[in-house]
Structure formats: structure tokens, C-alpha cells
Amino acid sequence: MGKGKEMGGTLSAGMEPVASKAMDAKLREIWGKFEKGWMRRELRSVLPPTRIEWMGVKFIVYPRDNFTEFRMWELGRPPEHEATEEIAAMLAGSNAVIVDVGANAGAFGLPILARAGKTARGLFFEPNPVMLQRLNANIGLNEIKNARVFDCAISDAPGRSAMFFPKNGNLGQGRVELSYAGTAEADETIEVEIKTLPDCLRSARVARVDFLKVDVEGLEDKVIVPLLDGDEKLWPGMIYFEVEHQGSWDLPLLGRLAECGYDEVKSFGKNRLYRRAK
Questions:
Q1: Which residues are the signal sequence here (predicted)?
Q2: Separation of alpha carbons 188 and 162, rounded Å
């Protein structure tokens, strides 16, 4: 594995002061004066962290370097809000075990966990140190006690890998093992630890998984297939993941889902929700 360019600045920055309500209101007023174009791009590049609330969960969002958080600031909800709302309704009040691989700032998994029952559990995986810091901050902001956070990436074998980031400045698109530009030298990278999902579930003493969400920008197969190749007791009741990157997959993910009794329940744009027949 070649050495990539080490991420500086953004990935080494600490938590920033959060904008006041008055400052946020003024920035939104200025934002509304411009159509799409360079002025909005320039303004977005200096937007400070801001407090918002969505689905009853409080967040501090950083609009300038993460597309999901930007949408939360701009529209009051994340891009995958429809799926989040529907899955949260399915698991509402239940004693669910919720696993979120590629948790980002928690916009998907935290509202689902918050709607689940008091004895529900959430396991969140986020290897990007900046997003990990934001995820932990949002968990603390809501005083969530039933969440466990893993600071590792997930793949089909343990080890270490470069985590690659595209040039568009979106910290939510970090991924391991797959370079965006085709060569490690062309990407900005950090090094992260990799574990397998079955190993992590065993270490957390998880006896079952009710819902698994995977957002890993092209390694969906290496997250899900090892789980389906192992103990059937850990096969998730529902699995939600992005299919756009299936051209990068090495393992027969869709075939294994069919073999294990999963049916596609619904398509949410580039993402699909599968449920295992009981």
C-alpha cells in the first residue's frame, strides 16, 4: 500500500465554538440572498458549527466539510431522512439492537436508537477521528447511555489500512482499502484500524442484531458477507445499505442475501432495505 498524503487541518482540528442563534439566523439570511453558485460555495466554506434538532435528537452540525451535516443545516434534515423516519417507526419502542457501520455524526443511527425502547442498544462504528469526535459529542449532547462507539473501520479481515478521502472536502466519504483516484498518492489519507463485524459483535456480547445499517462507500460486501457467513444467530433482521458501489464489490453480497432468506423491502434512492423472512 502506497503512502498517501496525510490529512492536515480539518482532520487535526478540535471542536470549534458553536454559532449563537443570532449568528446562525444572520448567516441563513445571507444564504437565502444567493442562488446556487460561487457565492454560496464561498459562504459554506466559512459556516461555523450550529445546533439543530431533528426527530427529537439534538445535533451540533458542521456544514462546511460534511455533506450530511450541511443538508441538516440547510434543510433541517439529513439526505436519508425518509429511510431514517421509516426504520425508526418500524423499531419504535422495541428492545432492538441497532448497528451503524459508518456512523458519521450519528444523523442516521441516533434518531432510530432514540425512538427504540429504553432497553435498546446501539453500536456505532466510525474510524474517521473528526467524525468520531462529532459522533461522541452528539451522543453526549443527548445524554444517550445505551450507545457504544467503536473507533475502527470494518472489513473482511483485521489489520490496518489507509482511509482515503476524495478531493471534494466531504469528510463523510472517507473509506478504507479503496482509493478514489486509483493510486494512494493521489488521495489524502490517514491510517486506521480494521476489524471484522462478527469479532466486534462478539466482543460487545451481542446475541442478535435487529437492524444493520452500512455506509462505507464501496466495501458493503466486506462488511455484510462475513456476518452472513458466520453464526446465523447474528444475522440481522433488517439490513440497509448503498448499492451504488456494487461494481467495486469482490464478494457476492446480493446473492448471499438471497441465499440467507432476505427480501428487498424498499428502495430509497441509491440505498435498499432488506428484511429476513421469519
A1: none
A2: 9
